[in-house]
Structure prediction request, 439 residues.
Amino acid sequence: MFPDELNRWVLTVLPAVNREILAGREPPELLAARLAGGVLAELPAPERIEPEVARRLTTLLGLIGASVARHFQEHDVTRKERPADAFAELRVGPEDTPFLSYFPRLAAATGAEHPDRDCYASLVRWNAPTVEIRLGESVLAVLPGVFGDGRVRSYTGDAGEEGFFALLKDSEALELAANDAVQPMADGAVDVVSGEALDRVAHATLLLAALRQLNMDYANRPVSAGGLRPDHFMDVFRQFAVHWTPGDVPPSGAQDPEFIRRDFLLGVAWPGYPEHLRRIDPALLAAERVELWGQLDADSLPTLLLRRLGLSSDRLEEASADELRDLVSRYPALASWYFLLATNARYASTHLLLAERFLFRPQRQRDADGRGDRELVSNRRGTTGMDRPLLRQLADARRGHMLATLARVPASELARLAGLPPVARLTDADVADIVHKGA
Prediction:
């Protein structure tokens, strides 16, 4: 099965088998037995596979591996201590290579230094169809998929799962476009107060407004329209984020590199970021590691802006509303950058809303009802260990950005003083004009 046949198997047979096992209609050993029956036998040696094909197979085997590992551990949660045993009988290719030996070789063949297990990049970015971000006729960013079939591969075929993967990829594409819009200022190639810079900031602000609207739409989407049920998210979807080997890092939306890059560019002052980056580092691709570690200690864009204007955060903090009005009149760039940071803060609140709606609030209700937590993958914290207090700290850090004191002046007045158009309020139709899906 190489690779189209295996893709069809993962799109059709894998979800069906997973559903049967999870419903208790089939034993947990069924999937491993089906795989042992020859599904993986036709895969060639990884060293003979081209990078693009290796990326497809890495995605497919990632979904297979997560499914096998989940059923093995869920059947007897004491097996969480020895997760690799799930793959003991699983062989790949004509040489009967053990699965956990074959996968790292396949990951190496991708040319991306993919981790030795499933990760965000393969599960979301490579899996879902290509996303293109446009403003008018301009293409600002393209986030390719690797399959070209317009499909999203998932664990059980549930529309909410597929929609969640699509949401993560659409969000990353918007973040990529917004980050690339402001990166030249961070690199020193464009003056932070120049006309080009302010055009770029306006574009980034619009893209982050689209990001917020996209996520709000998903949060309010009914199940009948492909929305995600909290119980499915907690009891089915998240439970596939199990360990393959002790201490490895399962995939998580928290590993979206563009989300993290944006925080570094905009100067989110969260002291836990270095430790968070160290924690997720093994789950990142090589280029993502280089980008994020290089950005971690760089001056943020608000820092560069205030330095360029000869201002300080203390001066802004101590200024009265009238003094802030005077500063914006003299330095209109302050308002442009403020609207970007304020829009990012509003998106942070939406991100926290999603976590509350689909994870933390339902789990608090379960605790109150005496139902407790899942033994396999806890629903009291994210896959990377980020719990509700930490997410709140991050949301507060995004709201407490370096230009936050400008909120003392109404937004409409800031726009007027700086000669800017009113801040746009986007609709779902506006987002559809920006986010375009390909194959």
